[in-house]
Amino acid sequence: MGSAGQLAGAHPAARHVLAVIPARGGSKGVPAKNLAPVGGVPLVARAARECLAARLVTGVVVSTDDTAISAAARATRGTP
Q1: φ, ψ (nearest 5 deg) of residue 60
Q2: Can you state the angle between helices 43-53 and 67-74, rounded to 10 degrees?
Q3: Which UniProt keywords apply (predicted)?
């Protein structure tokens, strides 16, 4: 086996890295935290955008129970 975290025989270009962003809708400490604007962009959208821009990330999933959070995350599709 290769270095830690590397599959034996796996070519570096063949790796798939999935970023999973948990974005719960019912925050008790800071209500609507994931929709709060940070630099004019909802927090969940900022997290998704950063993951999409990451060089090694090949896919991004936002896990949420809230339709508004889902819509904000989907709005980042195709945005580097």
Answers
A1: -130, 135
A2: 40
A3: Transferase
| Residue 53, phi-psi category: left (phi > 0), alpha (psi -120 to 50), beta (remainder) | alpha
Indicate the pTM of the whole model: 0.75
Place of tokens 């339709």: 67
60, β-bridge pairs: 19
DSSP one-letter code for 56? T
In this structure, what DSSP letter does residue 79 have?
A: -
What are 18's strand-pairing partners? Answer: 59
CA distances (Å), origin 31, targets 9, 27, 28: 47, 5, 6
Cα→Cα distances 74→15, 47, 60, Å: 24, 12, 11
Q: What is the pLDDT of residue 2?
A: 46
